[in-house]
């Protein structure tokens, strides 16, 4: 199929986890989207069934997963005090009553769930900013759900993508949005994003806001491409899938939102320094891999087979348990590569304030990885919580 050829990875990402890396770049190759890639054309192709053989083969397999926080032992995993969490969750619950989104998105526990997520990602932010960041996490989840909805046709996908991109450009552009350039016909989900980005932009450095704009655009475009690709019968290559997920899961925007949370704007010369960039990309990979592992049970049950563990098992003709072990091997290697990069951070003896910002930024990157796991264990959005043991070890049977 010609469309599938567009997805062929140009770089193979660690096919053998026992092979030592050659340098600090070896773990973070990126697969660029081909210049000829046409999302609209892919969306226009008919929907076909996929993965029936995978489902038949792995239904009934029992999988055991250790506590993933144990794989990142020196990294932070904490949250705000319970009093702060309760107050913010109550405010979010009140806000949910005012937003124009389907009632199912406002289900009981939504405020608590996304307040907790914002807290484990942005542990040191003020209560006021935690409210905004919890709303941002609500939007991110809702947008992801809409893009993951198999009933969303190609026209609806393009419409949501285009509305979201216009909102991002309007709110995070060089000029603050005025009443005349706001889209009052936008969907409820897009309106929530507009509220959040307007609040964040008012307290972000120009360079940080522009970085967030670019990263959000890339994430939205990547999510639209993944939705289009899911409509076809050929399962994606697992390594290319990992590249795509690192883009569309929103990891980079979550990291940049940390600059809003911590109240500083990291200069581009520092942000794109080799060591800082390595930390960012390694933590993005880590967060994505952690999410893929912990989402395996739910993805299989819901028929969303574009999961790293499932794809790797299928591609290498191994059990899902063996695939999970390989992915956890990648987690260990990415953790080690990130730790090694810290020794190369651009710290200066004469710039203590900037040094603190760099360390704070790196800590925020690490919380993206640990927070992804911590939140899953606290709130159980990715798996049946009955499968979770006292030490946060997870056991489940695929298909149940």
Question: Can you describe what's shown?
Answer:
Helix 5 (110-121) crosses helix 6 (127-148), helix 7 packs parallel to helix 8 and helix 11 packs across helix 17 (352-379). Helix content is 59%, strand content 2%. A two-stranded antiparallel ribbon has the order 1-2. It is built from 17 helices and two strands. The radius of gyration is 20 Å and the shape is globular. It has one domain (49-397): Farnesyl Diphosphate Synthase (Orthogonal Bundle).
What attributes characterize this protein structure?
single chain, 400 residues, mainly alpha, Farnesyl Diphosphate Synthase, 2% strand, disordered N terminus, metal ion binding
Low-confidence stretches: 1-37
User: What would the principal axes of the Cα set say about the shape?
Assistant: globular
Order of SSEs, N→C? HHHEHHHHHHHHHHHHHHE
CATH architecture: Orthogonal Bundle
Distance between the termini: 33 Å
Helix-residue proportion = 55-70%
CATH superfamily: Farnesyl Diphosphate Synthase
Which value, in Å, is the CA radius of gyration? 20 Å
Question: Please, how many helices?
Answer: 17
CATH class (first level) name = Mainly Alpha
- Main β-sheet, in a few words? 2 strands, antiparallel
Arithmetic mean pLDDT: 85
Number of strands: 2
- The total number of structural domains is 1
CATH topology: Farnesyl Diphosphate Synthase
Q: Which structural class do the helices and strands define? A: mainly alpha
Strands side by side in the biggest sheet: 1-2
Strand content: under 5%
InterPro entries: Isoprenoid_synthase_dom_sf, Terpene_cyclase-like_2
Keywords: Lyase, Magnesium, Metal-binding
Cofactor: Mg(2+)
EC number: 4.2.3.-
């Amino acid at each position: 199929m010609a469309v599938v050829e567009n997805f062929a990875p140009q770089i193979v990402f660690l096919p053998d986890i026992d092979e030592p890396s050659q340098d600090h770049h070896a773990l973070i190759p990126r697969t660029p989207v081909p210049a000829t890639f046409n999302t609209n054309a892919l969306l226009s192709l008919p929907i076909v069934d996929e993965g029936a053989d995978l489902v038949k083969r792995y239904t009934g397999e029992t999988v055991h997963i250790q506590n993933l926080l144990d794989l990142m032992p020196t990294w932070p995993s904490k949250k705000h005090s319970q009093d702060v969490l309760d107050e913010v969750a109550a405010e979010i619950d009140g806000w949910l009553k005012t937003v124009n989104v389907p009632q199912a998105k406002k289900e009981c526990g939504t405020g608590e769930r996304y307040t907790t997520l914002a807290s484990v990602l942005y542990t040191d932010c003020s209560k006021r900013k935690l409210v905004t960041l919890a709303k941002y996490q609500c939007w991110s989840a809702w947008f992801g759900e809409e893009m993951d909805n198999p009933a969303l046709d190609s026209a609806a996908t393009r419409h949501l993508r285009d509305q979201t991109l216009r909102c991002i450009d309007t709110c995070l552009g060089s000029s603050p949005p005025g009443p005349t350039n706001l889209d009052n016909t936008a969907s409820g989900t897009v309106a929530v994003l507009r509220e959040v980005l307007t609040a964040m932009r008012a307290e972000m450095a120009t360079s940080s806001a522009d970085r967030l704009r670019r990263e959000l655009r890339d994430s939205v475009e990547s999510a639209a491409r993944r939705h289009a690709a899911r409509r076809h019968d050929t399962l994606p290559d697992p390594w290319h899938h990992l590249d795509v997920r690192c883009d569309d899961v929103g990891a980079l925007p979550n990291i940049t939102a940390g600059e809003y949370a911590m109240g500083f704007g990291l200069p581009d010369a520092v942000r794109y320094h080799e060591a800082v960039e390595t930390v960012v990309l390694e933590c993005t990979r880590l967060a994505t891999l952690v999410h893929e592992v912990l989402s395996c049970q739910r993805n299989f049950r819901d028929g969303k087979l574009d999961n790293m563990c499932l794809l790797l098992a299928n591609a290498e003709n191994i059990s899902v348990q063996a695939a999970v072990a390989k992915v956890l091997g990648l987690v260990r290697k990415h953790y080690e590569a990130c730790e090694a990069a810290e020794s190369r951070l651009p710290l200066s003896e004469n710039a203590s304030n900037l040094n603190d910002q760099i360390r704070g930024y790196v800590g925020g990157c690490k919380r993206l990885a640990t927070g992804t796991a911590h939140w899953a264990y606290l709130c159980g959005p990715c798996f049946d919580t009955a499968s979770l043991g006292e030490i946060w070890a997870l056991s489940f049977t695929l298909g149940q």
